[in-house]
């Protein structure tokens, strides 16, 4: 794919000056370097480059440049499993288009569906982004319909980015239809929708999804190699005595282990930060080794994992059964490939029958009237959501609420805790493993 001239940086070559240990108080300087590196690995820290996403960045830049220069409306759907750099790529391309590309000025509104209290609030957010004024969702929809229904040569183009678009799915999909229908209006916006599922639009708004004008940009999951390149790009500026703070082997180990589970770059960044803390503690304890090694990464995985396993251990029995139901539901609905499992989200209604079945196998259901299974499930998932083991697409959950398991928690962790901690554990695991074996056979 041809790269648009001067497109945002995507990690080819060294992109910034290195950060090295200063002279003077060596220990202080070393710790300063570690802290700066840790801060740069925070999720809130925006890296200078989108490493290894040259094709995706070029496609997005070209799409937006073309639409903006022709003053044309249009829609692009970006999909990919969590932590694959979608939000980062979009923000970098917009930054480039606004500041460096020489494009005529345009309006940009970025809305994240995940932070809205209801899907239709997206209209309020968009209208407020365009006009600076707050209003009700209904009024905002009316005003936006009017704006996009009228062609105005004097107005700047409107670029709408709707991230976490899947959070805007409603029973009638009216919000999604409105967003995408605007792009076929005379004064319509350029819409960029971002979500995790490849087929979200085909499943929800097939009439729009089959339109020839809808462009699509899938972000493939990071594999071992691509994640390694991301980690190199994120850490290569930090040098100790002209040696990278992280050894190549350490970064390779981290990318291999994360890509085996989910390929979510967030998880890898989290582990690198934990490894830095371990190295700092070791140096303060007298170690003369200043670079982060594979040993630190292995320890860091253990300390990150023990947090999650510890959290499962603190759960009530109904919550653990609800977790089991979720994992089996994801496994059955998405197949057993790891990268699919991590990006999956299933609904409360899918988990309910499994929850009832496993509650029965554990004998726990004798403690509640079966009619209360639903309220037990709601309480269990709400509590799991609050400790970060599960993410619910809305609160309080309804039958159609989507659930995503924490990517830090593997099925093996649950199996381990359930087998060790609960007297009913082996009975439930037997039922679960039989069901999984049946599913695998039929795949
Ligand atoms: N190619 C990359 N280069 C540098 N950093 C990256 C890259 N990909 C991801 N990251 C970092 O990983 C984290 C997650 O990336 P991002 O938020 O863009 O993921 P996403 O695909 O939008 O995930 P989600 O679907 O969960 O919203 C961010 O901190 C981001 O800076
Ligand atoms: Mg994102």
UniProtKB/TrEMBL annotation:
UniProt key word Nucleus: yes
GO MF term list: ATP binding; ATP hydrolysis activity; DNA replication origin binding
Pfam families xrefs: AAA_22 (PF13401)
Gene Ontology annotations of biological process type: DNA replication initiation; mitotic DNA replication checkpoint signaling
Keyword Hydrolase: no
Subcellular localization(s) per the UniProt record: Nucleus
Superkingdom, natural source: Eukaryota
Keywords tagged on the record: ATP-binding, DNA replication, DNA-binding, Nucleotide-binding, Nucleus
SMART domains: AAA
Region (Disordered): 1-20
Gene Ontology cellular component terms for the protein in this record: nuclear origin of replication recognition complex
Positions of the AAA+ ATPase domain: 72-223
Primary subcellular site in the record, as a coarse category: nucleus
Function: Component of the origin recognition complex (ORC) that binds origins of replication. DNA-binding is ATP-dependent, however specific DNA sequences that define origins of replication have not been identified so far. ORC is required to assemble the pre-replication complex necessary to initiate DNA replication.
UniProt subunit comment: ORC is composed of six subunits.
UniProt similarity note: Belongs to the ORC1 family. Belongs to the CDC6/cdc18 family.
PANTHER family for the chain: CELL DIVISION CONTROL PROTEIN 6-RELATED (PTHR10763), ORIGIN RECOGNITION COMPLEX SUBUNIT 1 (PTHR10763:SF23)
Name of the molecule in the record: Origin recognition complex subunit 1
């Amino acid at each position: 794919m041809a790269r648009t001239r001067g497109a945002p940086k995507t990690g080819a070559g060294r992109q910034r000056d290195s950060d090295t240990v200063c002279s003077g108080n060596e220990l202080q300087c070393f710790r300063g370097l570690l802290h700066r590196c840790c801060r740069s690995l925070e999720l809130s820290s925006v890296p200078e480059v989108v490493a290894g996403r040259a094709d995706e960045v070029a496609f997005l830049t070209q799409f937006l440049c073309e639409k903006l220069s022709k003053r044309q409306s249009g829609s692009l759907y970006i999909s990919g499993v969590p932590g694959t750099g979608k939000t980062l790529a979009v923000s970098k391309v917009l930054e480039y288009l606004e500041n460096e590309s020489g494009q005529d000025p345009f309006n940009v509104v970025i809305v994240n569906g995940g932070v809205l209290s209801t899907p239709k609030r997206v209209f309020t957010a968009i209208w407020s982004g365009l006009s600076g004024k707050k209003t009700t969702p209904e009024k905002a929809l009316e005003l936006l319909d009017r704006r996009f229904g009228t062609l105005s040569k004097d107005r700047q183009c409107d670029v709408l980015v709707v991230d976490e678009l899947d959070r805007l799915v409603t029973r009638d999909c009216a919000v999604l239809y409105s967003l995408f229908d605007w792009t076929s209006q005379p004064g319509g916006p350029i819409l960029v929708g971002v979500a995790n599922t490849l087929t979200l639009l085909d499943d929800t708004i097939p009439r729009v999804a089959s339109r020839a004008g809808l462009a699509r940009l899938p972000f493939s999951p990071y594999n071992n190699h691509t994640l390694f390149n991301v980690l190199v790009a994120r850490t290569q500026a930090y040098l100790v005595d002209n040696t990278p703070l992280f050894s190549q082997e350490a970064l390779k180990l981290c990318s291999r282990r994360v890509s085996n589970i989910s390929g979510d770059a967030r998880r890898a960044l989290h582990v690198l930060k934990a490894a830095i803390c371990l190295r700092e503690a070791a140096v303060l304890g007298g170690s003369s080794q200043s670079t982060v090694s594979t040993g630190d990464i292995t320890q860091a995985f253990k300390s990150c994992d023990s947090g999650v396993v510890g959290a499962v251990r603190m759960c009530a029995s109904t919550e653990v059964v609800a977790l089991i139901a979720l994992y089996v539901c994801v496994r059955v609905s998405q197949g057993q490939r790891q990268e699919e499992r991590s990006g999956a989200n299933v609904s409360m209604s899918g988990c309910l029958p499994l929850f009832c079945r496993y509650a029965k196998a554990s004998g726990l259901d004798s403690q509640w009237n079966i009619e209360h299974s639903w309220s037990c499930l709601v309480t269990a998932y709400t509590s799991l959501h609050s400790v970060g083991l599960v993410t619910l697409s809305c609160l309080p959950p309804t039958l159609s609420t989507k659930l995503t398991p924490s990517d830090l928690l593997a099925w093996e962790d649950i199996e381990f805790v359930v087998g060790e901690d609960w007297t009913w554990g082996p009975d439930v695991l037997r039922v679960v493993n039989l069901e999984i074996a049946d599913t695998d056979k039929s795949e």
